[in-house]
Amino acid sequence: MIVAGAGALGLSAALALADAGCSVSVWDPTEGSNASAVAAGMLAPVFEAALDAETTGDLDLLLAARNLWPGLAARAGVEVDRSGTAAVGSEAWLAEVRARLTRLGLRGADLPRAMLDDLAPGIAPDLQALLVREDWRLEPGPALRALRQAARAAGVEFRAEAARGRGQADWLVIATGAGPGLIDVAPELRRLTPIKGQILRFSDVRGGRVSLRGEGAYAVPGSGGLAVGATMEPGLDDARIDPVALQPLVRAAGRLFPALEGATFAAAAGVRAATPDGLPMAGPSAAPGIILAVGARRNGWLLAPLVAQVVTACVTGRDPGPYAPRLDPARFETSRIGGRAR
Ligand SMILES: Cc1cc2nc3c(=O)[nH]c(=O)nc-3n(C[C@H](O)[C@H](O)[C@H](O)COP(=O)(O)OP(=O)(O)OC[C@H]3O[C@@H](n4cnc5c(N)ncnc54)[C@H](O)[C@@H]3O)c2cc1C
Question: Which residues line the pocket of ligand 1, CB cutoff 6 A?
Fold first, then answer.
């Protein structure tokens, strides 16, 4: 079978399929310059549900995906940092965050100032924080390399070519992110819209021990420096750096860490693919032999193991689990009752 696309979704699916005994070939013309490589790497079910209206109703599914990460991390040798994530902001904003968490049946721990200084050295003195242990992170570059290596060791072949169709393969798994090339192969891909995301990296700043969610930006520490992101630019599908769109992020970075005002950074951009309801399409296409693994919007890393599980179940005939109906590509078809289009 062919897996088209070597991002987080394609590589996770390829590894799971190989582990299920399938003979897998991953096709991708470009290595490492995709949304997965640009991402911040947060595995953040709680703050995504709390802060992003699009996924507020999906906390259970996001947590289920997160819960699959320890297994995938152990299998592929991906390091997952479980130190947690702190919402950081003014008292009024934190009260709002607290209320949202409460509505979701969750709560964070108020961080004493000394502990905040310890976890995030250099954080602005007027900010307060609320720590959530449920939101983790990984480093996208090393994680992509680890997944690729594990897949290769499991027998997966790699081809530096664009897939144009199923050809002679028994199955084609489409994990092409926002790539538009295969719309004629799988009509469901027309449902995807691009959302450009730009992110800053301050390579001289390590950024402390936990990820931070602030007003207008998040800040994620990593070996490559502190990542501050990200813009959400619906409708744009280019990866050009736009200095004007970056300005709010630059200002938000300075509000979180005053030392970042005027600091040097590198910017990167990627394109997320989004469905009408914010959840991916994972499962069979209406076209025979085609399986979709696309549309993970701003949570592709978080959702990758769940998407891989559903994709693998399509091929093996095993139970795809309780979340498969919410990811079914057919849910947007108007004839289907019970869809959740919004
Ligand atoms: C700035 C930014 C920050 C983000 N932060 C996070 C985060 O913290 N946590 C999180 O969970 N998610 C985050 N995301 C979202 C996440 O990056 C995406 O949801 C995820 O990377 C999508 O993975 P993918 O495999 O579907 O697509 P991609 O990573 O885009 O990979 C698709 C691959 O398909 C290949 N391709 C395209 N067409 C073809 C073809 N015809 N044949 C073969 N190959 C093809 C492309 O070359 C590409 O390599 C972020 C995104 C951005 C842009």
Answer: 4-10, 27-30, 34-36, 38-42, 162-163, 175-177, 179, 181-182, 197, 199, 229-230, 270, 272, 294, 296-302
Please give the Cα distance from 339 to 326 (Å, whole number): 9
- Identify whether residues 315 and 198 lie together within a single domain: no
Question: Does the pTM of the predicted model rise above 0.85?
Answer: yes
How many helices (DSSP H) and strands (DSSP E) are in the chain? 11, 18
Beta bridge partner(s), residue 318: none
Indicate whether 209 and 73 sit together in one domain.
no
Q: Given the CA of residue 268, which atom of ligand 1 is nearest to it? A: 1
Among residues 199, 249, 206, 198, the alpha carbon closest in space to that of 224 is found at: 206
64 and 5 in a single domain? The answer is yes
pLDDT band of residue 276 (cuts 50, 70, 90) is: very high
Segments forming the whole domain that contains residue 323? 1-84+135-192+276-342
Q: CATH code at 64?
A: 3.50.50.60
Which residue puts its alpha carbon closest to atom 40 of ligand 1? 162
CA 335 / ligand 1 centre spacing (Å): 30
Domain end residue (candidates: 215, 245, 274): 274
Residues 157 and 267 in one domain: no
Residue in 68, 272, 292, 307 to alter for ligand 1 test, most ligand atoms within 8 A of Cβ: 272
User: For the chain, what is the mean pLDDT?
Assistant: 95
The owner of tokens 């003979």 is 23
Q: Give the pLDDT confidence score for residue 339 in this predicted structure.
A: 44
What distance in angstroms lies between residue 179's CA and the mean position of ligand 1's atoms?
A: 9
Pocket test for ligand 1, best of 1, 3, 26, 34 (most atoms within 8 A of CB): 34
Count: domains in the chain: 2
DSSP secondary structure of 190-222: GG-EEEEEEEEEETT----SSEEEETTEEEE--
Whether residue 167 is found in the same domain as residue 72: yes
> Residue of the nearest CA to atom 3 in ligand 1?
39
